Amino acid sequence: TQEAAKDLGLPMGTAVGASLIDAHAGGLGVIGASVKGYSLPCENEPITARMALICGTSSCHMGISKTPIFVPGVWGPYYSAMLPGFWLNEGGQSATGKLLEHVVRGHTSFPELKRKAKDSGQNIYTYLNSHLCLIKKSSPVGFLAVDVHVWPDFHGNRSPLADRK
């Protein structure tokens, strides 16, 4: 508007981009994406029936609603925080990608993994995924996790506990 241009000291008609939190930008892209023609279960559902999982250094699960929904341990609801006129709830894990990197690089076999990945011309994660596919072909899929015990709060918990320890 003319008033906004004057307030900002800009020529009238100058495009100004609004800032947006990275997870919220991803949430808009996922929740607001057109799903027509892909035979997805959400194709004929409202956007309030979707949840976005945005992953990077951390992970964030985000959902929107027309009315506020209060869930113990989940952040929000925040009105118009991501999409004007909708309530946002979010939760996640504060150290997803970096934690995976920490675990992989801290493993005693990391130097061997690094060498094998380099020799195969792949990054370490592509090499690991290929290796898992080979194991899966030779053993039942449950074998991959037979001795795996998960501690979901390893290195902190963003939600539902909001405990950084």
- Average per-residue pLDDT, rounded, comes to 85
Structural class: alpha+beta
State the separation between the terminal residues, measured CA to CA: 48 Å
The strand order across the widest sheet is: 1-2-4-3
Overview of the structural elements:
- With 165 residues, this protein is of the alpha+beta class.
- The chain is built from five helices and four strands, in the order ααββββααα.
- It has helices at residues 2-8, 22-31, 97-106, 110-120, 124-138, and strands at residues 51-55, 59-65, 75-79, 87-93.
- A four-stranded antiparallel sheet has the order 1-2-4-3, with helices on one face.
- A hairpin with a 7-residue loop joins strand 3 and strand 4.
- The chain is extended, with a radius of gyration of 22 Å.
Helices and strands, with pairings:
Layout: H1 2-8, H2 22-31, E1 51-55, E2 59-65, E3 75-79, E4 87-93, H3 97-106, H4 110-120, H5 124-138
Antiparallel strand pairs: 1-2, 2-4, 3-4
Helix pairs in contact: 4-5
Describe the structure concisely.
With 165 residues, the chain is α+β, with helices and mostly antiparallel strands. Helix content is 32%, strand content 15%. The protein has helices spanning 2-8, 22-31, 97-106, 110-120, 124-138, and strands at 51-55, 59-65, 75-79, 87-93.
